[in-house]
Design brief:
- The protein contains no helices and eleven strands.
- The protein has 152 residues and is mostly beta strands.
- The chain has one domain.
- The protein is globular, with a radius of gyration of 17 Å.
């Protein structure tokens, strides 16, 4: 995600995301989970179209992931990451580690979200029995700010 912003989003945060565990018909927002890659919100979890996860959140009215507490089940909306490890001026490494029913979001090597899901809520057909973790990652570099680039 570069610095350029075009109408009508010139003033909006730069925004991207990584969808995983998606099923169902091919459409813009399928039944899936999303690792949010949006400026200042990198690592948040979005639950789309009836997917269901369990995680530890502060309160139901303020769904922020916490390290300890009771598991709560969510089937819609956003769960806010724990901590802010995003580098707003340089490279960021963002990973979704999917291991069986366990989900972990990492931002620059730090776990900011952990959740659990039941395969019956994800797949319409029987999933592979492989227990090897899958991981997806991406990096981004912000463009230099105006006037900060060096020239000869």
């Amino acid at each position: 995600m570069g610095r350029q912003a075009l109408p009508p989003r010139e003033e909006d945060k730069r925004d991207s995301g990584l969808l995983y565990y998606f099923t169902g018909p091919d459409k813009v927002w399928p039944r899936a989970l999303e690792l949010q890659i949006q400026e200042t919100d990198v690592g948040d979890l979005w639950i789309l179209e009836g997917s269901r996860i369990s995680t530890k959140i502060e309160t139901e009215g303020y769904p922020m992931y916490v390290l300890s507490g009771p598991l709560r089940t969510q089937s819609r909306g956003r769960i806010i990451k724990f901590g802010d490890f995003e580098d707003r001026d340089g490279w960021n490494t963002v990973e979704a580690v999917l291991d069986g029913d366990r989900i972990t979001h990492l931002v620059n090597g730090r776990a900011v979200m952990r959740a659990w899901t039941s395969s019956r809520h994800l797949w319409t057909t029987r999933p592979s029995t492989s227990r090897s973790p899958a991981a997806a990652s991406c990096s981004r570099r912000k463009a230099p700010r105006s006037g900060s680039a060096t020239s000869k």
